Amino acid sequence: MSTEKRINPLVPIFVIPIAGLVLLNLAFALTACIRYALFLLYNPVGGDESFFMPRFFHVITPLIFMVGSYIVLSNKKLKDIYKATFSVVPTAVLLVYTGIYLYNWPLVVYAVSGLIVLGIFFYLFKTRRHWMYYYAVGLISAALLFMQIRGIDI
Fold first, then answer.
1. End-to-end distance of the chain based on CA atoms, in angstroms?
2. Between the CA of residue 34 and those of 38, 72, 113, what are the distances in Å?
3. pLDDT per residue as tens digits for the range 11-57
4. Using CB atoms within 10 A of its CB, is residue 29 exposed (0-12), middle (13-18) or buried (19+)?
5. Which pTM value belongs to this model?
6. Interhelix angle for 88-101 vs 53-73, to 10°?
7. For residue 61, how many other CB atoms are within 10 A of its CB?
């Protein structure tokens, strides 16, 4: 557990979803910028799209986010509320890309995503993280599960 000064529990309950949504929008806007920049780099204007680009995008984008997330989440100077809020981004990216890769097999998406979320919760438990991390991961996981069940595409 953290030795930080206690904050009112209502603050993270409202801050994590709102700030997490803003961060997700920024993350996926950044994804679009990365993809567009790579597309322009590898495809001449007016030329045909390179055959490897879709797979390349689906591999490089999550890697960029995972490395960036590792840097942010391993920063000892950031408070738990900031890191818990930011943890929405790598969790969402991981679950969304799992859904993209396995789109044709919904039951496999549920199973693999469930294992990912359980693995994250196990990691949080073993490292004795603050309850805000559980809340952030649970919230984004539940939101993405709802979207998957309802057939809502991103």
1. 35
2. 6, 19, 25
3. 889 999 999 999 999 988 988 887 788 777 777 666 666 555 667 77
4. exposed
5. 0.82
6. 160
7. 20
